[in-house]
Write a structure and sequence with these properties.
It is a single chain. The chain contains 10 helices and 12 strands. It is α/β, with parallel strands linked by helices and 348 residues long. It folds into 2 domains: 49 residues, DNA polymerase, domain 1 (Orthogonal Bundle), CATH 1.10.150; 270 residues, TIM Barrel (Alpha-Beta Barrel), CATH 3.20.20. The strands form 2 sheets. Strands 1-2-3-4-7-8-9-10-11-12 form a 10-stranded mixed sheet, with helices on one face. Strands 5-6 form a two-stranded antiparallel ribbon. Strand 11, helix 10 and strand 12 form a beta-alpha-beta unit. Helix 1 crosses helix 2, helix 4 packs across helix 5 and helix 6 runs parallel beside helix 8. Bound molecules: S-adenosyl-L-homocysteine (SAH).
Length: 348
């Protein structure tokens, strides 16, 4: 039988297991306190009796990830490569800022959706991550920050989580939802759902289920005409813009919240006047904002980025049309840690 995963267990299940071991009630809190700090190895849970640590290690999958490499960019960004039990590799990125620190997690090893400008898309699909494999990425970053804190002015406490690493989170929805449960639960990490963002190619049937959870939604739009989007986001052939539009209109939003439409700017491909006019027609101005992402190149990519100055001009033009638009600042480019550069190459 497959062992259950320790990380992501809910409080009641953990308490029941501990009670069955004859342990006092306060043990559940002790174990959860360790997990919340990112300590997954029972051997390091020093306030638990030795015998209990051994039982935890024996009965649960405690840390499903092996850290293989860590790189630090000049701008404070850190990229981590992990190996899963299956042998597949994934990458995780820490994006520090002064007032927040964001962890960008992977939800799958590889991806089936094959967007041609995305490095991960070139890898093919190697499998869904379990909830613990998603959460252990954050735990590993927490341990790394405890061991080797970022210098001032960066913030060392993780405040935001984005599902924008490798893979399509809505294609692994059950595990992503289980991970979000631990992230938001008071007995888990206790992060507000407003600080969690799920980014998707736009799997229409799954969008309704995500809507019930109340996390932030980002859609990889990249083109507002079907012909072009079929090419850039091939799943558009199954869920064309009209269906995506209907799903976005039906997506529940709390007051003052909005949906982000991500738009990677590819020079000469989707950044022309007519493309932007189509974008203005697509956006529902009160509910949706546009985040322009200058293309981050990767080895072998056949696209070029729209120059940053032009990206800012486009944003200003969109704003003049009444569309709220920003340009995403590229981070960690020097270590291939920026959007769409993750590919978890094995060590040479
Ligand atoms: N599969 C999900 C989440 C992962 S990608 C999705 O598609 O939304 C996170 C964002 O990075 C997406 O908007 C994706 O289109 C974008 N992206 C992919 N490759 C990129 C690249 N090379 N440069 C800039 N952004 C890229």
């Amino acid at each position: 039988m497959k062992k259950p995963e320790l990380l992501g267990q809910d409080e009641a299940a953990l308490a029941a297991w501990l009670a069955a071991q004859g342990e006092p009630r306060y043990r559940a809190r002790q174990v959860l306190d360790w997990l919340r700090k990112g300590v997954l190895n029972p051997a390091a849970m020093t306030n638990l009796p030795k015998a209990l640590r051994a039982r935890l290690a024996e009965q649960f999958v405690c840390d499903p990830l092996v850290l293989e490499a860590r790189e630090c960019a000049a701008d404070g960004v850190r990229k981590y490569r992990f190996r899963l039990a299956s042998g597949a590799r994934i990458e995780t990125v820490l994006i520090p800022e002064r007032e927040r620190s964001t962890v960008c997690v992977s939800s799958q090893a590889g991806c089936v959706y094959a967007c041609p400008f995305c490095h991960t898309g070139t890898l093919g699909f190697r499998g869904n991550l379990t909830a613990a494999e998603i959460l252990a990425q954050i735990a590993a970053v927490q341990r790394d920050l405890a061991r080797d804190p970022l210098p001032a002015p960066w913030r060392n406490e993780i405040t935001h989580i984005v599902f924008m690493g490798m893979g399509e989170p809505l294609a692994n929805l059950a595990h992503v939802l289980a991970a979000i449960r631990w992230l938001t639960a008071p007995w888990g990490l206790g992060i507000s759902k407003r600080r969690i963002t799920v980014s998707t190619v736009g799997l229409v049937p799954q969008l309704a289920r995500l809507g019930d959870v109340g996390v932030n939604l980002a859609i990889s739009l990249h083109a507002a005409r079907d012909e072009l989007r079929n090419e850039l986001v091939p799943v558009n052939r199954s869920y064309p813009l009209a269906r995506l539009r209907a799903a976005l209109n039906a997506y529940p939003l709390a007051p003052k919240r909005h949906i982000t439409l991500e738009y990677v700017l590819l020079a000469g491909i989707n950044d022309r006047k007519a493309d932007m006019e189509a974008l203005v027609r697509f956006v529902r101005k009160g509910r949706e904002r546009v985040n322009l992402i200058p293309f981050n190149p990767w080895p072998g990519a056949s696209y070029a980025p729209t120059p940053l100055a032009r990206a800012h001009e486009i944003a200003a033009w969109l704003v003049a049309q009444g569309v709220r638009a920003t340009v995403r600042r590229p981070r960690g480019q020097d270590i291939l840690a920026a959007c769409g550069q993750l590919a978890a190459k094995e060590a040479a």
